[in-house]
């Protein structure tokens, strides 16, 4: 192992699985503008809880709580589809950060059918992550992409000044 290029050796099996996986997007006959992603759910939240919360904004077409295939336990997110896009817009505005089972939830539009080339987080895409872990994906309404305040030209200018400033000390 010593002497090998460490950048060519995956440091974790999840990276290997993600690189070898092939994503087949979900095919649905509903409009993606009618479908909301609901995340950060308490693991005790049920499909009925989602129905009760989201039916106040309009007529629902479907509600899906995503569960682990093996254990059957909730994965902490789901999808809510409305019959009308106006109801989805209302829920998007009003349900975001609403507290459900003692947790503020995240409500955003479904990205899988609206963004070209979208792949889920489990395959190395998606949004989220924490900057402390070095896995931040910019996007989503919680962490939108923001242009850096320091541009490359500003950085070059400041680094060129550094030798003359350090010479003063």
Question: Topology, pairings included?
Answer:
Blueprint: H1 13-20, E1 35-39, H2 47-54, E2 60-67, E3 74-82, H3 85-95, E4 99-100, E5 103-104, E6 106-109, H4 152-166
Write a structural description:
Helix content is 25%, strand content 18%. The chain is an alpha+beta fold. The chain has a domain at 13-19 and 29-126: 2-Layer Sandwich (Alpha-Beta Plaits). A hairpin with a 6-residue loop joins β2 and β3 (74-82). The longest helix has 15 residues, at 152-166. The radius of gyration is 22 Å and the shape is globular. Keywords: Nucleus, RNA-binding. One of its GO terms (cellular component) is precatalytic spliceosome. One of its GO terms (molecular function) is snRNA binding. Residues 34-112 form the RRM domain.
Cα-atom radius of gyration: 22 Å
Please name the fourth-level CATH homologous superfamily of the domain at 13-19 and 29-126. Answer: RRM (RNA recognition motif) domain
Specify the structural class: alpha+beta
Q: In percent terms, what proportion of residues is strand? A: 15-25%
Q: Based on CA inertia axes, which overall geometry fits?
A: globular
Distance between the termini: 45 Å
CATH class of the domain at 13-19 and 29-126: Alpha Beta
- What is the residue-averaged pLDDT? 75
Q: Identify the CATH architecture of the domain at 13-19 and 29-126.
A: 2-Layer Sandwich
Number of strands: 6
Low-confidence stretches: 164-169
Fold-level CATH name of the domain at 13-19 and 29-126: Alpha-Beta Plaits
Strand order of the largest sheet: 2-3-1-6
The number of helical segments is: 4
| Percent in helix | 10-25%
Could you spell the SSE succession in H and E letters?
Answer: HEHEEHEEEH
Q: What composes the largest sheet? A: 4 strands, antiparallel
């Amino acid at each position: 192992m010593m002497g090998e290029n460490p950048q060519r050796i995956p440091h974790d099996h999840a990276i290997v699985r993600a690189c070898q996986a092939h994503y087949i997007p979900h095919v649905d006959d509903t409009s993606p503008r009618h479908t909301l992603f609901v995340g950060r759910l308490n693991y005790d939240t049920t499909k009925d809880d989602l129905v009760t919360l989201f039916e106040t904004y309009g007529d629902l077409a479907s509600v899906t709580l995503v569960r682990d295939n093996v254990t059957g336990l909730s994965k902490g997110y789901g999808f809510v589809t409305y019959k009308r896009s106006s109801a989805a817009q209302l829920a998007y505005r009003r349900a975001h950060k609403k507290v459900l089972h003692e947790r503020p939830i995240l409500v955003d539009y479904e990205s899988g059918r609206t963004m070209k080339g979208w792949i889920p987080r489990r395959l190395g895409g998606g949004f989220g992550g924490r900057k402390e872990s070095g896995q931040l994906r910019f996007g989503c309404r919680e962490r939108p992409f923001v242009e850096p305040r320091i541009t490359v030209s500003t950085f070059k200018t400041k680094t060129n000044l550094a030798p003359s400033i350090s010479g003063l000390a």
